[in-house]
Amino acid sequence: MTASIIEKEAGPSTLIAVRDITATKESEARALLFEERFRLVFEQANEAIFLSDPEGLILDANPAASRLTGYDLEEIRSMNVQDLHEPSGKHISEAELDKVRHGTFQGFSATGICKDGTLRHCAVTVSIIHMGARKLVLSMVMEIPEPHGLRPLLHWARNGLGGYWTDPR
Fold this sequence. Notes:
By secondary structure, the protein is α+β, with helices and mostly antiparallel strands.
């Protein structure tokens, strides 16, 4: 509500304008609820989630990414995805990132290197997401713990988060 005093020949008058903002407030409440739900899923997911730009610069990561890599979140946010791959496998991850840039990504497995030098074999799925006009890369990474645990992880990599998997057979 706004009010103004208007001078007229007959004397001062008050002009009052009232606008119903119920829809705006409801929309803001829905947006806050959506943001809260997204943040809850992001923060509590068991899989490592990385958000990066198409060049691989990591913009954000969840706590599971920190647990998987041993780096704290601030360190991860200063890294490139290539920094998390073992040196001998960087050409593979770069080729996969190039596929992501061109929309032909297929899920893959890679060996990552942790802060303490430990190597971890992981399944990776990726989706391109759009935030306004900006393209971002959303990656989900799950450690492959042992050979007999591969079948459910391959299913996850084939079907998870829009990534597509081509069976090499």
